[in-house]
Amino acid sequence: MNIEASHDAMVEVSHLTKAYGSAAPAIEDISLSFKNGEFVVLLGPSGVGKSTLLRCLNFLVRPTSGIVRINGQELGALSKKGLLQARHHIGMIFQEFNLVNRMSVLMNVMCGRLGTMGTWRALTYNFSPEDHELAIRALARAGLEDQELYLRRADTLSGGQKQRVAIARMLIQEPKVILADEPIASLDVVMRVQIMDLIKDIAKRDGLTVVMSLHQLDVAKNYADRIIALAQGQVTFDGPPSELTDAVIERVFKKPVDEVDEDQTVETTEAPAE
C-alpha cells in the first residue's frame, strides 16, 4: 500500500527497503505513518532492523528503495543542502551519545546550532551570544542546571550526564520530531527511568513525534503510545501496548515472555504534569 502525504502525519515511509550488499534486506517493504505528538517504539532484539529503519528516517542511512517524508518533505527528493536543512529539525538521540569528548559540555550543546549557521561560522564554531543563552536554557531543561558543569570536557561526565547533554543538543535544534536509537541501553536502571521520563515530558510539552528503538519490553509498554515490533526486517505487530500479546512477544524475541526482560526491568514514574 502506498502512503500518500497526510496532513496529520509527521513521519511517513512507503515501501521502504534497505539492503547491505548481497545480504538479505535489513528492512523490507515497510510502510508506516506516525502522527504529530505520537510516541512510537520500534521493539525487538538486536539485528531485526530497528536501527536501520530509524536511521533511514533522516537519511543517515540511505534506503535502497522507498519513500521517506518528514513534515511533508520527501527526503530523497531534496538537494544535499535541502537535506541538511531538513535534518536540522529532526532531533537525534544515540545510544553512545555522539558527543565530542574534547569539547566542553556547552560547546557540545551549541553544536546543535551548526545547521543554522553559514559555512565559515560553522567551520570556526563561531557561536553567537544567543546560541550561548539557548544552550544554557536547553541544559537546564535537560536537568543539568549546575553551570560549573558546562565548562567540563564531555569525556569527564557520567553516562547519564552525557545523555542529558545529548538531549540538550537535540533541544537547541528546536526539532519537530525526535528519533532515538536505543537511548537507554548504556545506562543503569535508575538513570534509564530518568532519561525516559525526560524524553516523554519533552515530547508531551512540545507536542513532538517520537520514534524510538528499544529492546526492553517493559519500558516499551510503559512509555509508548504505539509499539511496532520487528522481526527479520519486517513489521510483525503494530498497535497499542495493550494489544501486544505473549504470542507476538515470543515470536519477536524468540524466547518465553518471562525471560525477555531478565536483569533489565525498569519501573516508570509519571512525567511531570504540564
Shape: globular
Taking all Cα atoms into account, the compactness measure Rg is 19 Å
Summed up, the helix count is: 10
Spatial strand arrangement across the major sheet: 6-7-8-3-9-10
- Low-confidence runs: 263-274
Please identify the structural class as seen in this structure.
Answer: alpha/beta
- Listing every helix as H and every strand as E from the N terminus to the C terminus, the arrangement reads EEEHEEHEHHHHEHEHEEHH
The fraction of residues in strands falls at: 15-25%
Biggest pleated sheet: 6 strands, mixed
Count every beta strand, where a strand is a DSSP E run of 2 or more residues: 10
Mean pLDDT: 88
Helix content range of the residues, please? 25-40%
Distance between the termini: 38 Å
Tell me about this structure.
The strands form 2 sheets. This protein has a 6-stranded mixed beta sheet with strand order 6-7-8-3-9-10, sandwiched between helices. Strands 2-1-4-5 form a 4-stranded antiparallel beta sheet, covered by helices on one side. It starts with 8 loop residues before the first strand and ends in a 14-residue tail after the last helix. Helix 5 (129-141) crosses helix 6 (159-171) and helix 6 (159-171) runs parallel beside helix 7 (189-206). It has 10 helices and 10 strands. It is 32% helix and 22% strand.
Please tag this protein with its features.
single chain, 274 residues, alpha/beta, six-stranded mixed beta sheet, four-stranded antiparallel beta sheet, 10 helices, 10 strands
State the gist of this model:
The protein is built from 10 helices and 10 strands. The protein is an alpha/beta fold.
